[in-house]
Amino acid sequence: MAERPKKTFLYLNRKAPYGTIYALESLEVVLIGAAFEQDVSLAFLDDGVFQIVEGQDASALGMKNFSKTYRALGDFEVRKLYVERESLAERGLSEADLMPIMWEDEDEDYAEKPSIRLVDRSEMTRLIGAADVVLSF
Amino acid sequence: MSAYAFNGMQIAHDEEGYLTDIAEWTPELAELIAKSENIALTPEHWEVVNFLRDYYEEYQIAPAVRILMKEMTKKYGKEKGDQKYLYGLFPYGPAKQACKIAGLPKPTGCV
Question: How many structural domains compose chain B?
């Protein structure tokens, strides 16, 4: 099969994890889409930053706590999770409130490397502009 | 809704045989599900089933077959993460069929 050029996919996550289905749907689409071996990035902005906050407890909601699944993204070769710095600050959050999400570098004896990258709003704008495909949830 | 008849109980499953409530799973039930799939569970099968259950416990998802191969290789070595080896154990798809026996939902990304 002829090698097709990879497209860059950016999934925008802007909504709180529970209360609507957007966050879970986005995650499922990312996991399914990862099978197509494209260049996939995730962006977390606005209330979307709450999706990757550490220590979530969904038990009172009768929903599965799917936040653990973000930590599997590295296995699916999704290694770029951009988090908007301003969105965190506006919600009284900092990087320390986020889950550690890592990927393993097979070329370096499975060394764990962080997937989360904090970017400011102007850089986020640039990333969105530069992606071939933007999917907003 | 169909169900597995097990120890005098009815354990509900979906139209493809995946458990409706994963909390109802027991190793004995796994033997029964495997039998309905024409598989006699060996220690090699259990290695995969237990791996999938651990993975689900940690990440709340069942891995796709590609991930299963990668992670089995990492944990148990190249021969255990081999596609032929895994299909030999679970002819209808190592992730798909093994997840059913492990009482887990169908792996994300499987159709």
Answer: 1
> Could you give all domains of chain A from N- to C-terminal order, each with its CATH number?
8-55+62-136 (3.40.1260.10)
Determine, for residues B109 and A35 on separate chains, whether the beta-carbon distance falls below 8 Å: yes
ipTM score of complex: 0.81
Least confident of A23-32, A69-78, B101-110: B101-110
Cβ pair A31:B74 closer than 8 A: no
Task: Tokens 């529970």: give the residue.
Answer: A18
Would you state the pLDDT for residue B2? 87
Q: Are A64 and B57 in contact (CB under 8 A)?
A: no
Q: Is B99 noted as a catalytic residue in this protein?
A: no
For the purposes of burial, counting CB atoms within 10 Å of the CB of A61, is it exposed (0-12), middle (13-18) or buried (19 or more)?
exposed
| Single pTM value for the model | 0.86
User: What is the total residue count of chain B?
Assistant: 111
